[in-house]
Amino acid sequence: MATIVMLGGNGYIGRHTTLKWLEKDSTAQFYVLSRSGKNSLVDPRVHTLKADVSDYQSVKSVLPDKVDYIVDFVGRPEKDPEVFKQVNNKPAEVMQKIAEEKGAKAMGFVGGTFGPKSFVNGKKAIMQDLQKSSVRLEVVEPTVVYGADRNDAISKMVPLLKVFGIFFKQMKPVTVDAVASELVTKLTR
Fold first, then answer.
1. pTM, rounded to two decimals
2. What's the angle, vertex CA 153, arms to CA 149 and CA 155, rounded to 5?
3. Where would one find coiled-coil regions in this protein (predicted)?
């Protein structure tokens, strides 16, 4: 039975990754950590816990003893470099420390190739730091993610981005199911 910890895993990509993983491994147990402690997924294998994912002690205090995989889904563009570090770098640092202490098989990380240059470069820098760990790192770097239950301004741009994606790979949108499947496949190989 695999134990998977998901930092910020109740968001769009995290929820779909949990569903894909449940399809692949019906015995897996998920510990989804977020500030709200809320999750729209209802399943006895999904344990939703409230924790500040940017604070090591907060995360450590709610973790199970065994952690096979840990994934960081947290991230968003921020103009202020200090806010960017708090929102994006800190959860990644917490993930790495937990993975190393618990002897995890692998860490998962969601990068990005679409968005403000500071966001894309910031995510790349985080990935470079995580690759120095003794724990294997698996990364997905989607462009614009769409499908399933996403219905916002960006998802409305998908038809136009599909056209641009023919000419510019970094603009080609990808479905959330494809992103989730890629991450689960990479982590469990």
1. 0.91
2. 45
3. none
How many Å apart are CA 189 and CA 182, to the nearest integer?
11
Q: Do the domain assignments include residue 115? A: yes
How many distinct structural domains can be found in the chain?
Answer: 1
Q: Which of 51, 12, 6, 37 lies closest to 149 in space, CA to CA? A: 12
The strand pairing partners of 81, in sequence order, are none
Tokens (6 digits) for 76? 């968003």
pLDDT tens digit string along 104-154? Answer: 999 999 998 888 899 999 999 999 999 999 999 999 999 888 887 777 777
Question: Residue 71's domain is classified under what CATH number?
Answer: 3.40.50.720
Q: Which domain holds residue 20?
A: 3-145+175-188
> In this structure, is residue 135 part of a structural domain?
yes
- Residue 154 resides in a domain: no
